[in-house]
Amino acid sequence: MPADKNNTEVTIYDIAEALDVSPSTVSRSLKNHSSISSDTQQKVKEQAKEMGYRSNIFAKNLRRKKTNTLGVIVPKLNSNFMSSVIAGMEKVANENGYNLIISQSLETAQKEASNVETMFESRVDGLIVSLAYDTEDYSHFDPIIENNIPLVFFDRVAYYKSAANIIIDNFKAGQQAVTHLLKQGCKRIVHMTSNLARNVYEDRFRGYKQALEDYDIPFDPKYLIQNDLSNQAGQQAAQQILSMDPLPDGLFVANDTCAIACMSTLQDHGIKIPEDIAVVGFNNDPISSFVNPKLTTINYHGNEMGKVVIRNLISHLNGDNNIAMTNTIILNAELIIRESSVKAS
Amino acid sequence: MPADKNNTEVTIYDIAEALDVSPSTVSRSLKNHSSISSDTQQKVKEQAKEMGYRSNIFAKNLRRKKTNTLGVIVPKLNSNFMSSVIAGMEKVANENGYNLIISQSLETAQKEASNVETMFESRVDGLIVSLAYDTEDYSHFDPIIENNIPLVFFDRVAYYKSAANIIIDNFKAGQQAVTHLLKQGCKRIVHMTSNLARNVYEDRFRGYKQALEDYDIPFDPKYLIQNDLSNQAGQQAAQQILSMDPLPDGLFVANDTCAIACMSTLQDHGIKIPEDIAVVGFNNDPISSFVNPKLTTINYHGNEMGKVVIRNLISHLNGDNNIAMTNTIILNAELIIRESSVKAS
DNA sequence: TTGAAAGCGCTAACAC
DNA sequence: GTGTTAGCGCTTTCAA
């Protein structure tokens, strides 16, 4: 029975009584308050340990009106990128005495909104979000903003009220990827991407167009394929590409797994990668270096991104820097050239 | 400044005052207590909404000595399986008014132990764990058990004190996988797996041996390859397999991504899959149907497993069934036959 | 350097 | 059907 788990609960009063001091002295000692003699502190801590004391986080939160908890909402946890981001976040958060509540929007605005509400009810001290595929209206974040809960978007961001944004330079990454393809001699480059309302996809697309422009190649809308970047979508896109005449000679996909599904389907139809079509993905998912040919891609520092997000959020909460909350931080990303895009010269 | 977020906080006392009723009436109304007239309940709820009331979860937890929070510790979040498990857990938890705190052990016993401690400090009502790669000593779970916090292991489990286990029948799955290979005519089947101290790997290995025995093929230790099932390990294992003489004709890997890395490396060296070596993986990761050839694998119902875990935990917390906490629940898994294992007959 | 005391917002036993 | 009241365990101001 889970019932009797409380009757052993030790409080600061029990410690105070045992040591014949006041509860305040115990409370202060336990947090190394400078006004308590180190002798007393020592005694209190020993007694606490001996009695198996554990601080009651709820009484503390109730009193302090601060939860030391940060909420994290991501579209989906199933990628290596997200798992790295979360690991980075957890590390910095724990080092600073914060805990994380993590939830998935599963790419729908509706679940995202309900998650935001849960986080709000849980009184997180700060909220961290990477937007769902189809979020267009941001009003579910209003209560967060109105209650002065700091809001940080990362990766899939929005320029929304006082929220901070932490991203990579998707424009530059897209431009680099496509410039690389152009340098390989590609002239007809397909770009496969997702909802252009999401900054990550829009910026990569702008980078694609810029690179074309740099090489005096006009943008042809038929080379823009938009879908949800799922594996299935990658297969279908392959069919679409196969039906193009002349056949494209380059392919820049906004996501590795989709690139791989597409590449594999193209190969099934006798297309040689990179000879016939050179391919560049995005994310540097581990699988990208285990496919045949190994996939050229953009490397994203997920772990670092997670750390930066939390560092900035916490320093804002500490009042150290408020500026971050009205600003955008851009992290590095780099092109990793592998076999899938290098044409013999 | 995050400071003034409190001065707008509305409490049940404010509502009580505005309506000229007692705080208890407000409290009761807000939770649909049957003793309050529906008329009063209605009024209270309206007033609460109008005043922008939100319940203080800490005062509630402090009073009720229950957090309605469940802790989840998994090795790593980066797989489709884990993300499905978590999604299933979240769904059932939320439906029942519970929240989840999720953390990753990143496959180390050390971080697992520190996560358990954090969960304990956070006073989760129940703890859910899938064990790290190298956890051998379980004493970090002792405080959980001692405080009568229900503990449920899933997937990677341990027969430990009062903990419940929720798993698939890994023995049967392994047996099925290998029997399938044997039916394809394979005689020299390599099994690649991980730490046999983890039930999932041990049971699959037993299934492998059982299948061989059923076909009167003696187990040859040289066909057992143990590593961490990473992509790199898959590549290395391929080298090891290539050096075997005679070449194996079947391969059963305890994990899809590793199977794929291995398969891809074998192909690089001119091995034909499935003609030369038939391959079966494990997990039914989405990528498995997008490689060439598509990978035969064992399908795991992650979402369902997550739901079952939470359902059992909650019904235990409700006192509905205690029996689950001393028992093992086995879910179905099934072999999905694809191209990588089917030899032309 | 320490103590007394009030109160964070809520729940629930007990009273009416 | 509703109200009174006493805490849950902690922090912190004020006083000594």
Automatic annotation (TrEMBL), chains A, B:
InterPro entries: HTH_LacI (IPR000843), LacI/GalR-like_sensor (IPR046335), Lambda_DNA-bd_dom_sf (IPR010982), Peripla_BP_I (IPR028082). Residues 10-64 form the HTH lacI-type domain. Coiled coil: none annotated. Gene3D superfamilies: 3.40.50.2300, lambda repressor-like DNA-binding domains. One of its GO terms (molecular function) is DNA binding. PANTHER family: HTH-TYPE TRANSCRIPTIONAL REGULATOR GALS, LACI-RELATED TRANSCRIPTIONAL REPRESSOR. This is LacI family DNA-binding transcriptional regulator. It comes from Fodinibius salsisoli.
